[in-house]
């Protein structure tokens, strides 16, 4: 498991895996669980204005 996690984190850092792919590969049930896993390994996901705008559009579309 440790080897899989180390490999997956390096692939994510290199941009060869998305968050969704990493989450599925490692079997995390929620994005929050993946975020905690990444934070524990000092991997921080870039979140910029276009990401925020996309999230706002999604929330509006869902009526939230």
Write structural notes for this entry.
This protein has 64 residues and is mainly α. The protein has one domain. Helices cover 69% and strands 0% of the residues. The chain has four helices and no strands. The chain is elongated. 3% of the residues are buried. The model has no long low-confidence stretch (mean pLDDT 93).
- Radius of gyration, in angstroms, nearest whole number: 13 Å
Alpha-beta classification:
mainly alpha
Biggest β-sheet, characterized?
A: none
Mean pLDDT: 93
Helix count equals 4
Count of domains:
1
Number of strands: 0
What is shown here, in short?
The protein has 64 residues and is an all-alpha fold. The protein has helices spanning 2-13, 19-26, 31-40, 49-62.
Task: Give a quick set of tags describing it.
mainly alpha; 4 helices; 64 residues; elongated; 69% helix
Topology, element by element:
Elements lengths: L1 H12 L5 H8 L4 H10 L8 H14 L2
Helix pairs in contact: 1-2
């Amino acid at each position: 498991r440790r080897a899989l996690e180390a490999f997956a984190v390096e692939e994510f850092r290199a941009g060869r895996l998305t968050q969704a792919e990493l989450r599925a590969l490692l079997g995390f049930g929620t994005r929050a669980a993946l975020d905690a896993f990444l934070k524990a390994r000092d991997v921080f996901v870039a979140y910029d204005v276009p990401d925020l705008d996309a999230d706002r559009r999604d929330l509006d579309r869902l009526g939230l």
